[in-house]
Design a protein that fits this description.
Helix content is 86%, strand content 0%. The protein is an all-alpha fold.
């Protein structure tokens, strides 16, 4: 169990880092900056809050913190969708990060529902 938690910590951190690098390449338009900052906040929040989940002191605290992780992962996915639908970036530019966001969302949602 601890190995899986550590793996997910590393995976969510890697996801956040990939979004940070992506943010640096976004168009320097108002839309790019505003939506990019929203994505930056939510994706880094996934990693930070999952790390906090791993230090939960009770089941109730685990559930509350995991709920935040699920919300932030879903929000990250939303910003990717908005940026591609608004043609700020291409689907090809974000496809891998979107897939990782979906996978993390699925993993964290499953963990929350079984808790």
């Amino acid at each position: 169990m601890l190995d899986q938690a550590k793996e997910l910590q590393n995976r969510s951190k890697k996801f956040a880092i990939s979004v940070i690098k992506f943010y640096k390449r976004l168009p320097k338009t108002d839309e790019g900056r505003i939506l990019g900052k929203q994505l930056l906040r939510s994706s880094t929040s996934v990693a930070a809050n999952y790390r906090s989940v791993c230090r939960s002191r009770s089941r109730a605290e685990f559930i509350a913190k995991m709920g935040i992780v699920v919300e932030e992962a879903d929000e990250s996915l939303l910003w990717f969708e908005i940026m591609t639908d608004a043609e700020i970036v291409t689907v090809d530019a974000v496809n891998d990060m979107m897939n990782e966001s979906k996978e993390l969302l699925h993993i964290f949602s499953s963990s929350l529902s079984t808790a």
